[in-house]
Structure formats: structure tokens, C-alpha cells
Design goal:
The structure holds two protein chains of two kinds. Chain A contains three helices and no strands. In chain B, strand 1 and strand 2 form a beta hairpin. Chain B is mainly α. Classes of the chains: A mainly alpha, B mainly alpha. Chains A and B meet through helix 2 and helix 3 of A and helix 7 and helix 8 of B.
Chain lengths: 71, 260
């Protein structure tokens, strides 16, 4: 049963992280294409955004590891 | 998954491998900084002086993107310490690991490092004894990352209270007074997410390394690729921790004259 819990936790987390990061990076690419001189600033903001969005899915990954190894 | 040697003293469980790794990381950063500033020269900088100057400029631009330029110099050493320490700590667990197997208790100076319960649970899992790891990234331990986040938390609120008292206290009630519990929750969640983000990224990377190692010699290309990605993740997490620290300090301690 723990295997199923770990799989669900990682799967839904990956879904959230994938969709979120995809939206962030696509908007950044669009912004860079509109104003190529802002490339550095937009890239920095993109990394910060990815870091903030990925917190909860990565916490889910750690919980799934705990469930998987039953520590 | 490996156990870690814990030293139980006075009610505290001290993880010996984490302590060792923290000391080694501090020594590496200190030696790097000391070597970089020895024999300074303006016309003929050595390679390591060049590298350190690049780091200073990088951190300076990082802080300048979050707060007005006149205030940047105060927080430059904090930013450099955070980014160098966290970056070196993240990389420490990648090159190798030291795992020993124990069938009997290990005592050092009269204190138990590897207890019989650990050995028993190792035998229960099917090994010949306790598998104890002595080397890992210090940031793969939630106590270390929470310590760093607690430092940042106390620093932001202390700086906000002492340097910016009126606006710092007023921002809890902005934009409307009934937002107060939400603002308190926001302030409490900042150290939580800061510590858990760093811990979860580095811990998951290390668990995946030990999982890939289970495949033996066939996992070598995958291990090389994963270690390269872990290098990138370690750098990004160090950068993110530093820049979020600066954003929090900037919003709490710095009052923009043109806004009011």
C-alpha cells in the first residue's frame, strides 16, 4: 500500500510541476521574443519562479521517498 | 537507505555525518576565500582572484536586482557567505560516499555512535548489520537547512524592526486590516518553504544517486548524467536561497521613499 501512496504522491506532484514550469517558461520565452534586450532579467525571474513553483511537488517527492523506504 | 551515526548526548540526537560535512564545507569555503585574497594585484590578477571578483560581481548584481543600489553594500557579505556555503555544501555529497557495515556497537569516547537498535533494524531489512553512511551533503539534512532558514528569518525581522520600524509594523495591516492573519501566515511560511525547498532538492538528488547505484556498473552513464544535473540543481538552489533572502530582507527592512 505504501508503494501505491508513493506513486500517487510523485505522480500528482510531477503533473503540477510540469504544468506550472511549462507555463512559466513559455511566458518567459514569449517575453524574450518581444523584448530581446531584457533577456537577462527575464531569465533570472524565470529561475526564481521555477524555484517557487517546484517547492510543493519536491516536498511531495521527499514524502514519497519516506513512504517508499518506510523510514 | 542508509542509517547515519547518531551521537545521543543529553537528550540530543547529533548526527555525526552531518557535523563532519558541515565542518568540511566551512573549511573548504574558508580556504577558498583566503587563497583568493592572498597576493592581490590590480594589473595582474591571478586566476583565483579573477574568480572571486566574478563571484562578488555576481552577488552584487543579484542583490541590486532586489533593492536600491545604495543599500546593496550592507548585505554583500551575507549574500556571498550564503551562496558560497550552500553551493559547496550541495556539491559535497556528489563525488563519493562512505558506507560501512557494522555488526556490533561502535563507541567513541564512551558514547554510542551506532546503537544495537540500528544494527537490529539493519538485520531485519536483510543486511548483515547496520549500513551506516559517514559522508553526505550537509544540506541533505533538514536540521541544517532549517538552521539557515532560521538565521534568515531572525535577520529579516530584526532588521525590519530596528531599521524600518513604522513601515515594517504597518505592512502587517496592508492592504486591509483584516489581512493580518494572512500576513502572519505569509511570514511564517517563508522560513518553512526556504528550508524545505533546499532540503528536498538535495535529499531527493542523493536518494536517486543511491538508487542508481543499485544497478551496479550498468548505471554508470545514467549516474554521470544525474550528477551533472545535480551540479546544476545545486547551483540553482544556492542562487535561489540567496536571492529570496535578499528579497525578504529588502521588503522588510528597506523603505522606498518614492512609494509614499
Amino acid at each position: 500500500m505504501e508503494l501505491l501512496a508513493a506513486a500517487i504522491a510523485i505522480g500528482l506532484g510531477a503533473l503540477g510541476a510540469g504544468i506550472g514550469n511549462g507555463m512559466i517558461v513559455s511566458k518567459t520565452v514569449e517575453g524574450i521574443s518581444r523584448q530581446p534586450e531584457l533577456r537577462g532579467t527575464l531569465q533570472t525571474t524565470m529561475f526564481i519562479g521555477v524555484g517557487i513553483v517546484e517547492v510543493v511537488p519536491i516536498i511531495g517527492v521527499v514524502l514519497a521517498f519516506l513512504m517508499f523506504f518506510k523510514a | 537507505m542508509h542509517d547515519f551515526p547518531t551521537w545521543q548526548i543529553g537528550g540530543l540526537n547529533i548526527d555525526v555525518s552531518t557535523f563532519l560535512a558541515i565542518i568540511i564545507s566551512c573549511v573548504i569555503v574558508f580556504v577558498l576565500a583566503r587563497v583568493a585574497v592572498s597576493n592581490l594585484s590590480v594589473e595582474n590578477p591571478s586566476k583565483i582572484q579573477n574568480f572571486m571578483e566574478w563571484v562578488v560581481e555576481f552577488v552584487h548584481n543579484l542583490i541590486a536586482s532586489t533593492m536600491p543600489l545604495s543599500k546593496v553594500k550592507t548585505y554583500l557579505s551575507l549574500g556571498m557567505t550564503l551562496i558560497l556555503f550552500i553551493f559547496v555544501s550541495n556539491l559535497l555529497g556528489l563525488p563519493f560516499g562512505i558506507v560501512t557495515e557494522h555488526t556490533e556497537e561502535v563507541k567513541l569516547f564512551g558514547h554510542t555512535l551506532i546503537s544495537n537498535e540500528m544494527i537490529q533494524s539493519g538485520i531485519d531489512k536483510g543486511h548483515h548489520g547496520a549500513e551506516v553512511a559517514w559522508w553526505k551533503s550537509p544540506t541533505a539534512d533538514v536540521s541544517v537547512t532549517f538552521g539557515l532558514a532560521a538565521i534568515v528569518f531572525f535577520l529579516t525581522h530584526f532588521l525590519g524592526l530596528t531599521r524600518n520600524t513604522k513601515h515594517y509594523l504597518k505592512h502587517y495591516f496592508e492592504p486591509f486590516p483584516f489581512f493580518f492573519p494572512l500576513n502572519v501566515l505569509k511570514e511564517l511560511s517563508k522560513p518553512l518553504t526556504l528550508s524545505l525547498r533546499l532540503f528536498a532538492n538535495i535529499f531527493a538528488g542523493e536518494v536517486l544517486i543511491s538508487t542508481i547505484l543499485m544497478a551496479g556498473v550498468w548505471g554508470t552513464p545514467l549516474l554521470a548524467a544525474w550528477q551533472g544535473f545535480s551540479l546544476f540543481v545545486g547551483g540553482v538552489q544556492a542562487f535561489l536561497f540567496t536571492i529570496l533572502t535578499m528579497v525578504y530582507i529588502g521588503s522588510a527592512a528597506i523603505h522606498n521613499e518614492e512609494d509614499h
